[in-house]
Write a structure and sequence with these properties.
The complex is a heterotrimer. In chain A, about 65% of the residues lie in helices and about 0% in strands. By secondary structure, chain A is mainly α. Chain B is mainly α. Chain B has a domain at about 25-95: Helix Hairpins (Orthogonal Bundle). Chain B has three helices and no strands. In chain C, α1 (about 5-25) runs antiparallel to α2 and α2 (about 30-50) packs antiparallel against α3 (about 50-75). Chain C is mainly α. The chains are: A mainly alpha, B mainly alpha, C mainly alpha. At the B-C interface, α1, α2 and α3 of B face α1, α2, α3, α4 and α5 of C.
């Protein structure tokens, strides 16, 4: 047991345990109360954290688009999300006629819950984590399945054809991108020899970003696709589908979807830094576990910045391009790199630095071959369907009345 | 500790509910759902026997994983057949699929 | 009665109730949603058996894939069986009788069996041993042949499903 200044959360937990046992509660009941408390506090902090994330993202997107972003409420507009929150609280709940009540109301809750479920297995420091599950990585994949279900429930329950179309698209996209994501997640499992998230972090003497860059890239792209944000926002493409699956939601129910989206974007950064950047690891993180929290935060914000840049700078894919990217590039790449990682890593287990160098070289080769192949396909000449004409020059056929 | 009997009776009841779905429903998709329930009951049984009679060894778990794979394959093929029948005959009621009837 | 037993009873009752709703719900879409709940309940039952791998796999495979597929099929074929008219066929009382008979037979068989009240075996610290499980699936002295056959079955199912359900080719 570490002293309190090195590991305050577990110190408080141990203190609470003695207090509760002092009241004469059974050990099982004390465990239940502490677990419940921990889950509640984590979920609450996660949801409150979204308030900051929304401000941060809007500010950053504003800068990318040469605007100021929110700047009226409070210094640098930092209280803008609170104003939005107040507004969303007082809005009316509108349930469309013919809606299927239970799925309609369950969908927003499920979409937030499926994201928060991931937080249960993420190690925030060496000692602070929800549960040290030996199948933590599979739980992360399972939560992806639940978020698909949430979108489908919303699309079905709304009794609206745009919502339904959004739901169909969502299922097509989310299930497709689960394939390369799962395969790329198997590579850290091979390298660390465990399905538990904390064991994967502990195995990263060399971050997996160095030894498995292809897996990191595939995981990044497919998890952005899973979160359904631009450039993969076909799920709720507002210019085609009104707003996709959340067309019929208003007030706090819409707010839940909104929170789920932002939280998901942050959670994938958290996951990426846990699985590929070494999580809480850093200098002195083992003596002072709280430092690990800081390291994880810094890494996560670096990744989150890239996620937002991704959103701000890329246009939306067409649906066939989205499917092509998944099935013709990411999935084969993930499978090839899985096989090559297994073949290269196994004989060199006893020489960690040689293994890392060999893996890096193999990954670089995979990346060069696949990127060259994809580049050749993309740069192929498209058939010309019509001559371009400048917009400002009137066409001879248009008899526009000219003002004197 | 939960007695083994509870798991076995739970699995038997789940199996019978699934069986009723298979025997009585008209909709082919609902019949498939009944089959899924029956397969789940089998899995509960296998895992309970593994846990109570075989625990540190893994043989029982292998059976469960094979049943999972078979269930996935069965669902995929079944739904494909249903969609194909819907395209051709415009019905998914099980008693209307009687082309082979003399 | 311990806490675990109460938890099992609650989960079991919920699962059975939603399974009954699956086979009796009038709207086929509601049946599919009840099926999701029943499958989740079975996953929780697996968790009470300390088989965390299969509890999570149940969610991944059944809820994340099979239930979604079934919901998809329901949506694609909704028009014909519009939720009117009887959802069960004419001989449903006989089906009910057969099911009750099977249940009675099973319970009778089980109650005559000696190992009915066996206590659970101790399993090593940290839940079931995944490494051992993986090695059993891939070692030649273990279950590599059934495992490979199952994977071939999956590929065959995949190809067959695409062939059967795909759009008929224009001549």
């Amino acid at each position: 047991m570490l002293p309190w200044y090195q590991d305050p959360v577990n110190f408080i937990a141990a203190w609470l345990r003695t207090v509760l046992s002092g009241w004469g509660l059974a050990p099982g009941a004390v465990d239940f109360i502490l677990t419940f408390l921990g889950a509640g506090i984590t979920a609450l902090l996660g949801m409150l954290w979204v308030i900051f994330l929304i401000w941060y993202e809007r500010k950053l997107i504003g800068r990318i688009q040469d605007r100021f972003g929110p700047n009226r409420v409070g210094p640098w507009g930092i209280f803008q999300p609170f104003a939005d929150m107040l507004k969303i609280f007082v809005k009316e709940y509108i349930t469309p006629a013919g809606a299927d009540r239970v799925p309609y109301n369950l969908a927003p809750i499920l979409s937030v819950a499926s994201v928060l479920l991931i937080w249960a297995v993420i190690p925030f420091t060496m000692t602070i984590m929800g549960v040290n599950l030996n199948v933590g990585l599979l739980l992360i994949i399972a939560s992806g399945g639940l978020s698909v279900l949430a979108v489908l429930l919303a699309g079905w329950g709304s009794n609206n054809k745009f919502a339904m179309l959004g739901g169909f698209r969502a299922v097509a996209q989310l299930i497709s991108y689960e394939v390369p994501m799962v395969v790329s997640l198997l590579i850290p499992v091979i390298l660390s020899g465990s399905l538990g998230v904390n064991d994967i972090v502990k195995a990263q003497n060399i971050p997996f970003l160095v030894t498995a860059p292809v897996a990191a890239l595939i995981f990044f792209i497919s998890s952005v696709a899973e979160s359904g944000r631009s450039p993969f926002d076909l799920v709720e493409a507002e210019s085609e589908l009104v707003a996709g699956f959340n067309t019929e939601y208003s007030g706090l129910k819409f707010g839940m979807f909104y929170v789920a989206e932002f939280l998901h974007a942050f959670t994938i950064s958290l996951l990426f830094s846990t699985l590929f950047l070494g999580g809480w690891r850093g200098p002195f993180a083992e003596q002072y576990p709280l430092l690990g929290f800081l390291y994880l935060g810094i890494k996560t914000f670096v990744v989150y910045f890239v996620v937002i840049l991704f959103r701000g700078s890329l246009p939306r894919f067409r649906i066939d391009q989205m499917m092509d990217l998944n099935w013709k590039l990411l999935t084969p790449m993930a499978l090839v790199s899985l096989i090559i990682t297994a073949l290269v890593a196994q004989p060199l287990v006893s020489l960690p630095w040689v293994q890392a160098a060999a893996l890096f070289a193999a990954n670089a080769a995979i990346l060069i071959i696949f990127m060259g192949w994809a580049g050749r396909k993309v740069s192929r000449k498209r058939p010309i369907v019509g001559r371009p004409r400048p917009l400002a020059v009137p066409h001879p056929d248009d008899h526009m009345p000219v003002e004197p | 500790m939960i007695p083994l009997a509870w798991y076995l009776i739970f699995a038997a009841m789940l199996f019978c509910v699934g069986l009723f779905g298979v025997l009585a429903r008209r909709n082919a998709v609902a019949i498939l759902m009944g089959i899924e329930l029956m397969l789940n009951a089998v899995n509960v049984n296998l895992l309970a026997f593994w846990r109570y009679l075989w625990a540190p060894k893994v043989d029982g778990q292998v059976f469960v994983s094979i049943v999972l794979i078979a269930a996935a394959a069965e669902a995929v093929v079944g739904l494909a057949l249903i969609i194909s029948a819907y395209r051709r005959r415009n019905t998914i009621a099980a008693e209307d699929m009687d082309m082979l009837k003399g | 009665m311990s806490a675990l037993q109460i938890i099992f009873l609650v989960i079991g009752a919920l699962t059975l109730a939603s399974a009954v709703m699956v086979v009796t719900a009038r709207k086929i879409m509601h049946a599919a949603l009840w099926l999701v709940l029943a499958l989740g309940g079975v996953a929780a039952v697996f968790a009470t058996l300390e088989a965390s791998f299969f509890a999570v796999m149940q969610v991944v495979v059944y809820i994340g894939a099979i239930a979604i597929l079934i919901i998809f099929a329901v949506m694609l074929t909704r028009k014909v069986m519009e939720d009117t008219g009887p959802q069960v066929n004419r001989s449903w009382p006989w089906a009910l009788l057969a099911c009750l008979g099977v249940l009675a037979g099973l319970v009778y068989l089980l109650s005559n069996w000696g190992g009915f009240l066996t206590a659970a075996r101790a399993i090593p610290e940290g839940g079931e041993n995944l490494v051992q499980f993986g090695q059993a699936l891939t070692s030649p002295s273990g279950f590599v042949v059934p495992f490979e056959v199952a994977s071939i079955l999956l590929v065959a199912a995949l190809v067959g499903a695409i062939y059967v359900a795909g759009e008929p080719r224009e001549k």
